[in-house]
């Protein structure tokens, strides 16, 4: 990476799960570099959703390195997620026809409820789990999935954790880490965000800033996606052998289905 920039630059890993991100600096200049980042980073940059894309270079081995302007700011805290500008930026993302067109051009297949059920059933078989709660969750998803019809499919980030939201010193907000994004029901993102961060009595006010009313249909769709997400994570941590996280996600799944923790 130093050879790409020049000998005056210092490059260090930026952390993260993929190990493909780096911080580079020389003097007063500082860059965020990433190997093989999202192919629609340019569109995200142009719309002001991520920090400005400065350049893209292809290496001899075929890898693509992108450089973005370094953000002098901070990650949002969990309590920050109630901010109205979070709702407005997510609405901007979900409303972006440019992002949606880009996804269609690269052949992205929409993530539908039937596909999600199929994937979860496969994961159940792979883990070999016989835990009744998981089968009850699948039964709930199957029995109600035909009612989960999105009025439109949009580009969803799919990982709206507060650590992926950044705000700079000029109060400009960004949503980063787009590696898991896909086309789906906007209720996917909305459900994960509202259930995790926003008290139920504030959902309507938050959605007012997003630009959509809290309808019975939206409530139903959000709950469906949050249940599927919880089951997916429980199965993931079973596969990883992480008992603590498995228990945590299993208890959450039980709360979603029955309103209580399962002993």
UniProtKB/TrEMBL annotation:
GO-annotated molecular function: transferase activity
Signal sequence, renumbered to the chain: none
The UniProt record lists the keyword Acyltransferase: no
Domain Aminoglycoside phosphotransferase: 13-211
InterPro entries, sorted: Aminoglycoside_PTrfase, CcrZ_PhaseVar_Mediator, Kinase-like_dom_sf
Origin superkingdom: Bacteria
Keywords: Transferase
Keyword Nuclease: no
PANTHER family named in the record: CELL CYCLE REGULATOR CCRZ, PHOSPHOTRANSFERASE YTMP-RELATED
Protein name stated in the entry: Phosphotransferase
């Amino acid at each position: 990476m130093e050879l790409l920039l020049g000998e005056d630059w210092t490059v260090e890993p930026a952390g993260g799960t993929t190990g493909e991100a780096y911080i580079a600096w020389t003097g007063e200049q500082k860059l965020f570099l990433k190997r093989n980042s999202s192919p629609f980073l340019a569109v995200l940059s142009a719309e002001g959703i991520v920090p400005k894309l400065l350049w893209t270079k292809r290496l001899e081995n075929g890898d693509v390195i992108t450089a973005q302007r370094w953000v002098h700011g901070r990650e949002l805290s969990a309590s920050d997620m109630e901010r109205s500008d979070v709702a407005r930026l997510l609405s901007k993302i979900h409303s972006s026809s440019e992002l949606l067109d880009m996804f269609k051009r690269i052949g992205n297949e929409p993530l539908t409820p039937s596909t999600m059920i199929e994937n979860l059933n496969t994961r159940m078989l792979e883990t070999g789990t016989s835990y009744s709660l998981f089968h009850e969750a699948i039964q709930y998803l199957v029995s109600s999935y035909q009612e989960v019809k999105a009025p439109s499919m949009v580009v969803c980030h799919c990982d709206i954790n507060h650590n992926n939201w950044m705000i700079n010193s000029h109060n400009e907000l960004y949503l980063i880490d787009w590696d898991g994004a896909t086309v789906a029901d906007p209720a996917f993102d909305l459900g994960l965000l509202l259930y995790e961060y926003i008290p139920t009595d504030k959902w309507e006010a938050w959605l007012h800033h997003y630009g959509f009313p809290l309808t019975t249909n939206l409530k139903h769709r959000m709950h469906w996606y949050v249940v599927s997400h919880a089951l997916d994570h429980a199965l993931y941590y079973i596969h990883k052998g992480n008992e603590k996280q498995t228990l945590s996600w299993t208890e959450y799944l039980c709360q979603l289905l029955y309103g209580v923790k399962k002993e």
